[in-house]
Automatic annotation (TrEMBL):
One of its GO terms (biological process) is methylation. Gene3D superfamilies: Vaccinia Virus protein VP39, Winged helix-like DNA-binding domain superfamily/Winged helix DNA-binding domain. This is O-methyltransferase domain-containing protein. It comes from Physcomitrium patens. Residues 72-162 form the O-methyltransferase dimerisation domain. Keywords: Methyltransferase, S-adenosyl-L-methionine, Transferase.
Length: 292
């Protein structure tokens, strides 16, 4: 009977279990690892009982399958935990403290948060989860006879620091994990079956139109595009192929940051930012840039 369980039900069970136990009920990574091993063996044994396949081969196949599926099944929990840290501005808190105070304890981090009722146990579990994912570092030190975990930045979390960092990936994280960005994915199967646009199916309008309905989404989209274009802008500043160009039109230039950067580096160019009217309407003014 176990061998015939729907994989969909098993996926739902495991996903719910890891999120609830690891984040809420304070189970650690060792407990989860033991559970996965047990889960793999359970499925392998059930399969072995219902076929002539060797038990060890079944167990190995189940473990390999789980190894592939685990990041996919639990990816949403990792992404939302990471988003929690960014919403709380923890990468920036650790970056500001680093020069003088070094790594911070959960209690010290909590004092930097905009609340007088921070649940330090939940914060501790969030930090511990992200340490396991190599987003933050942790060291255990003895203070007044008590062992305290102190958390710091890693190369990964440095990419999420936003203060004085035009290349921060935090806006990308926030945009991709905003609730409105998730909804169209629930309709991807309809795009396959009927050729319909998933965003239109979800909201009955284009993403541009939705930006007007949900200003927070629009702001996240703008921030995402700014970060996305930053490497290109830096490369274009060093490119010498514009020296003989007198007029440069950026078709689909969004809010004009790219063509503005080119004109700033090559002042002899007259730049024109060309895009849809509702996009141009929100574009800031840049020196040397004309609108169509």
């Amino acid at each position: 009977m176990i061998a015939r369980l729907s994989i969909v039900h098993l996926v739902r069970f495991v996903s719910s279990w890891i999120v609830w136990q690891t984040v809420i009920l304070d189970y650690n990574v060792k407990v989860f690892t033991e559970f996965v091993a047990f889960f793999n063996l359970l499925m392998a044994e059930a399969t072995a009982r219902s076929s002539d396949v060797d038990h060890k081969d079944c167990a190995s196949a189940a473990q390999n399958g789980m190894r592939v599926l685990s990041p996919l099944l639990f990816g949403h929990a990792a992404a939302m935990t990471l988003k929690t840290a960014v919403v709380l501005n923890i990468p920036d808190i650790l970056a500001r403290a680093e020069p003088e105070r070094g790594a911070l304890s959960v209690h010290e981090i909590s004092k930097e948060l905009p609340s007088d009722s921070v649940d330090e146990q939940v914060l501790h579990r969030v930090m511990r989860t992200l340490v396991h994912l190599k987003v933050f570092s942790a060291e255990r030190v003895s203070e007044s006879g008590t062992t305290v975990a102190r958390y710091g930045l890693t190369p990964a979390s440095r990419r999420l620091v936003q203060e004085n960092n035009s290349r921060s990936l935090a806006p990308l994280l926030m945009y991709l994990n905003y609730i409105s960005s998730h909804v169209p994915w629930q309709h991807l199967h309809e795009s396959v079956l009927y050729g319909k646009d998933a965003w239109g199916t979800a909201y009955g309008m284009t993403s541009w139109e939705y930006s007007d309905v949900d200003p927070e989404y629009g702001a996240l989209w703008n921030a995402f595009n700014k970060v996305q274009g930053a490497p290109t802008i830096e490369a274009l500043k060093r490119y010498d192929g514009f020296k003989d160009v007198n007029v440069l039109v950026d078709v689909g230039g969004y809010q004009g940051a790219t063509v503005a950067a080119i004109v700033a580096a090559h002042p002899h160019i007259r730049g024109i930012n060309f895009d849809l009217p509702h996009v141009i309407a929100e574009a800031p003014e840049f020196p040397g840039i004309c609108l169509p």
